[in-house]
Amino acid sequence: LSTAAARAESALERAREVSDSTSVAAALNTLAVVLRNQGDLKRARDLYAQALATVRETGDRGSEASILGNLGTILVQQGQLSAATSQLDAALALWRELGDANGEASVHNTRGLLHERRGSFADAKASFEQALTLRRQSGQKAGELVALNGLGRVLFAQGDIPGSLQRFQEALDGCRQAS
User: CA nearest 129: which of 39, 115, 16?
Assistant: First the structure.
């Protein structure tokens, strides 16, 4: 395991030793993120499912929404688009209930990816545009750049080369400003 995964596993062990459900859920989620980033989607999915069950015991709705979104992302990556839709719908409902625009934007971005994989480019465009609007309203630049990149891909797939280039250029300019 990588250093990050080893640290997350260590944190998980400590949280389990002291029976701290909130910390167990957080450590499971962190380890799942690390494994997802390393390409171990099956194990990451299993850990997200454990984290979700654990966090529901604690009543932490924000963490529940975050884990649902993460689980939805894994399902999109695995091509399980119907299951992903269900998780993402639940995450979006929770983020809206909590009034968290960044959480909402994250789900819209993942929905954009889902629609893109389905070849539903109009729906993908709408999702990325919603994510972009919410990110701009909240000043969350990194998320804005992700949404711009998604829009660029979708516009390209739709044959709108000038629109695609404009979105990619905006994203590139934003990256340059950030560095």
Answer: 115
